[in-house]
Q: What sequence folds into this?
DNA sequence: CATAGGATCGCCT
DNA sequence: GGCGATCCTATGT
């Protein structure tokens, strides 16, 4: 079987988080459970959170708390937090240590471990919404607060692989982020990216 | 210590 | 399209 190459942390250690969010489309998120079984999915939707100047970011204004401390860690660190008391949202930290940039993974197109995903989601049949939406994507992959602060790597059983075929730029769409109306003018920034026409993207 | 609210989802109408 | 679920986090006293 053809193996994809691992995405190294240097991919994430760059200054332009918006560009990274865009480039992540088409990459494969892989999680391995304790039995060594892989769950994976193609990243079809992302959002960029641009650190201390971004009103939608948890780190806006340099906010530094227990929760947000993960955002200030090194590029390629997993930032997981609980939203609405129910949903675990999975992000990847980017840029240098001390700069709290992150990319939110909003939706996946399931590839491997679909039976496991169905079990985790409590669903009987596969459908486009198996990992559609950030809460559902994390749940399908078995991601929870235990993964917060981990460096993406095979050692930690969670990593990103390069795609065999990259996404053509004409198939990438951009628009405002979801659920960040409180961020005033920053809510309008086109920091959300998705693969055009993909059924596993969360919204039109 | 107490409390309000959140980068959502799925069920109900 | 409206709304309840459900609990961590941040903030204020």
A:
């Amino acid at each position: 079987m053809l193996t994809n190459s691992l995405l190294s942390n240097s991919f994430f250690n760059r200054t332009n988080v918006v560009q990274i969010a865009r480039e992540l489309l088409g990459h494969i998120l892989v999680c391995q459970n304790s039995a060594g079984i892989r769950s994976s999915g193609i990243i079809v939707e992302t959002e960029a959170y641009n650190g201390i100047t971004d009103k939608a970011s948890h780190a806006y204004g340099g906010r530094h708390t227990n929760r947000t401390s993960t955002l200030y860690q090194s590029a390629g660190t997993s930032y997981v937090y609980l939203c609405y008391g129910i949903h675990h949202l999975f992000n990847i930290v980017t840029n240098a240590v001390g700069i709290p940039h992150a990319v939110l993974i909003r939706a996946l197109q399931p590839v491997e471990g679909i039976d496991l995903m169905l079990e985790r989601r409590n669903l009987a049949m596969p459908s486009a919404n198996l990992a559609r939406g950030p809460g559902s994507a994390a749940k399908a992959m078995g991601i929870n607060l235990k993964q917060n602060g981990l460096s993406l790597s095979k050692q930690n059983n969670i990593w990103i692989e390069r795609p065999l075929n990259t996404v053509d730029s004409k198939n990438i769409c951009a628009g405002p982020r979801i659920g960040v109306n409180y961020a005033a003018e920053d809510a309008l920034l086109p920091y959300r990216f998705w693969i055009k026409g993909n059924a596993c993207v969360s919204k039109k």
About this structure: Residues 63, 65-67, 81-86, 145 of chain A lie near DNA strand C (CB under 10 Å from a C1'). The longest helix of chain A spans residues 17-24. Strands of chain A lie at 28-32, 38-50, 78-83, 87-94, 101-112, 158-161, 172-175, 192-195.
